[in-house]
Design goal:
Herpes Virus-1; about 20% helix; binds zinc ion
Length: about 260
Amino acid sequence: MEREDSLQIDKLLLSSLECPACSKLFMPPVYQCFNGHSICKTCSETKATCPECSLPLQNKFRNIALERMLESIEVVCSFKGCGKRLVLSQKRTHEQVCTFNPNIPCIFDECQWAGECLIDHITLVHQVKQFEMASSGSVRGWNSKTWRMADWGYSIWKFADDVIINKSFCSGDTFYLHLYDMGIRRRTLRLTTVNPEYQVDFFVKSEPIQYFKNKYTALPFHISIKIAEKYILESADELEEGYKRLSIRVEILGDQ
Ligand SMILES: [Zn+2]
Ligand SMILES: [Zn+2]
Ligand SMILES: [Zn+2]
Ligand SMILES: [Zn+2]
């Protein structure tokens, strides 16, 4: 009951709590023109005149009453399944990182796309490769000549029920592998080196893809290149001269 009340307040107030210039929900600080029309901080800096009465905006004032209101209204996150209660001024910030937000922003920095079908988008638009993975584990290889500077970018591992986006690169003396899953659950993956002389299991947790653009990423799976060169990187018959391959068997173990 309480929660429905909040939702109704939310709907009623939303229209009057949006900036008339950009239609985004106000967040403190809120400014107003000499006539008292409110405008958001960004628009107050980019517009010369008030969008409602055309008074010049060089004389603008803070709207403290509205700012206090934004801090005192409690709403519920709009995304199905979340249920998190927030003060209105935190709603937008929360919804950007909410793991129930079905609109996932594209993982490529230069791309502004956001939507529900990230896998289709990055496959079609950014030509990210998909690999079919067996539930018993599939072996993936990383080939490079210059291991210390290599960047393999993104690829998609498609398991029977799970999709993992991974990003791999080397920086300095370390090989990094980020694992992102499309759901709200974090998965545990077993990564096993396949060189028989140095076979090791690593248990790695994936992160929800929603965390990606918000830089809330934990330290990814990583191994020292020095150690990898000594024990794990292999030459392979089909590789060009000078290339070495790191091979890892990847298997999803299940929920956290
Ligand atoms: Zn605005
Ligand atoms: Zn005005
Ligand atoms: Zn939420
Ligand atoms: Zn994109």
